[in-house]
Amino acid sequence: METWDDIVVGAGSAGAVMAERLSALPGRRVLLLEAGDRAPHTRPLGRATLQGANWEHTAGTGAGAGRRTFAYPLGRALGGSSAVNGAIALRAVPEDFDAWAAAGCPEWSWERVAPWYAAIESDADVKGAGHGTDGPVPVSRVARSDWDPVATAFLDACRDAGLPWADDLNAPPAGPADCVGAVPSNARGGVRVSTAEAYLDPARTRPELTIRTGAHAHRVLVRGDRAIGVEYARNGRPATAHADRVVLCAGGIGTPLLLSRSGLGPAARLTAAGVEPVHDLPGVGANLSDHPVVTVWAVPPDGVSRPGAPWHQVMARLATGGGAADIGLFLAANMTEVAIPVVAGILRGRPAAAVSAMLLAPDSRGSVALRSADPDAPPVIDLALAAETTDRERLVLATRRLWELLRSGPLARAMGRVLLWTDRMVQDDAMLRASVTKFVAPMCHPAGTARMGPSQDPMSVVDQHGRVHAVPNLLVCDASVMPVVPSAPSNLTCIMLATRVAAWAS
């Protein structure tokens, strides 16, 4: 019977950090369980998502005849989604953390989290107050002199539209919310650096840390108000490990599923799935938030694309309501591998470019739940993308702004032939609303499904230190605890969050 001080489940953006930080304590015995294996090192930023290194989930949105389904891949490897995502190293904005604090989590105000963002990074380009120089995560931007023609045209179009240049998209806005700037990446020399490389590789020789890959956690063993261990399967064989504390870092989908299989969740729904409830926690699996996105694809003229070059070099932010930026316009260029069958069929191997309007702070909420008690059964993921009228209307406005940029001279010439979208679709209000509903898709940034909050809030699952209300030696530390999804891809915020929770847990 194995016994550990800590068992960390999931070696992704948060879990790799948590295991490294806890194992830095002399004599502490830490077991890290990861269902996947090691993703290849030295992956250039101009490469597509790795096949076989993901949880190949399926998610849906809408109801009845209008329901749509999507592939919903999330990282299943050492480094988790940080090993397979777009490697965009954007911070959340102060308004996000104001919302976290307002939800009963004052430890997560912007003033308290900003130093932790700086602590995790080593920014190669931006120096001075608010930025780190010796953290584990390298942050860099493609120099404008090295941008491809499509990125340069995007910048020209934004400037023609009156968007000012932002020297640092990771700084709190000091001027207009609308801006354009270089995309920061967790990369060094054009090669991504996942949390596996940044955190686990330097810690591998520690006797305090044991890493097991191919280890799929089935459930947490809970006795009364104590977590006593984890049941898992490794290479098809069942195993059990006991610990003084268990830390779940399985992500916005994996963590609520694991809690539910452990009997921690909404009692009626657990019973219906064949799981005996241990503690009734109605917030588990609720409050699912993801960034909805509308994307316009194009085929640049011959010679414009640079296959193998980084996809993400420049982006813009827009404020549709006059306050904080609530739309991100992300350019992706030089793409030779596209996972969308319809678009791939049209491209026939030619390089593609795309501009996406991403809603940064969506109001719509979905859910994730067990299909059955079987750990290998696929989950039921309801994204409820743009279900709220406020989200649909903001996406309509954002798509119009995106289209104006695309049809401007500089970007129109560089992007070339636009696929599927037309001027008529965008100009007609009814057609545009229908098109947004038809084409909206998820960014696979699930958050909020085990959100933090005070114990008197019946829908909160953990306190602001990550402790499950009913089981205080069971911690959750990943995007699932975020009360509001960050106004940015969530990878960097997960790393920051794990660094801070680990400091409390040490």
Put the structure in a nutshell.
This protein has 506 residues and is α/β, with parallel strands linked by helices.
Distance between the termini: 25 Å
Round the Cα radius of gyration to an integer and report it. Answer: 22 Å
- Inertia-based shape: globular
**Based on DSSP secondary structure assignment, what is the total number of beta strands?**
27
**SSE-based structural type:** alpha/beta
Tell me what portion of residues adopts beta-strand conformation: 25-35%
Uncertain segments: none
Percentage of residues in helical conformation: 25-40%
H/I helix tally: 13
Question: Could you explain how this protein is built, in words?
Answer:
- This protein is of the alpha/beta class.
- The strands form seven sheets. Strands 1, 2, 12, 13, 14, 15, 26 and 27 form an eight-stranded mixed sheet that branches. Strands 9, 18, 19, 20, 21, 24 and 25 form a seven-stranded antiparallel sheet that branches. Strands 5-4-23-22 form a four-stranded mixed sheet, covered by helices on one side.
- It is globular.
- The model has no long low-confidence stretch (mean pLDDT 94).
Pick out its properties:
506 residues; alpha/beta; globular; 27 strands; 26% helix
Topology of helices and strands:
Elements (H helix, E strand, L loop, with lengths): L1 E8 L5 H9 L6 E4 L3 E2 L15 E8 L6 E8 L1 E2 L15 H9 L7 H11 E3 L13 E3 L9 H12 L18 E4 L4 E2 L2 E2 L2 H9 L5 E4 L2 E9 L2 E9 L2 E12 L2 H11 L2 E2 L1 H7 L5 E2 L11 E8 L14 E5 L8 E9 L5 H7 L4 E8 L7 E3 L10 E3 L6 H19 L1 H7 L1 E2 L4 H5 L1 H11 L1 E2 L24 E2 L2 E6 L14 H15 L1
Parallel strand pairs: 1-2, 1-15, 2-12, 3-6, 4-23, 7-8, 15-27, 16-17
Antiparallel strand pairs: 4-5, 9-19, 10-11, 13-14, 14-15, 18-21, 18-24, 18-25, 19-20, 20-21, 22-23, 26-27
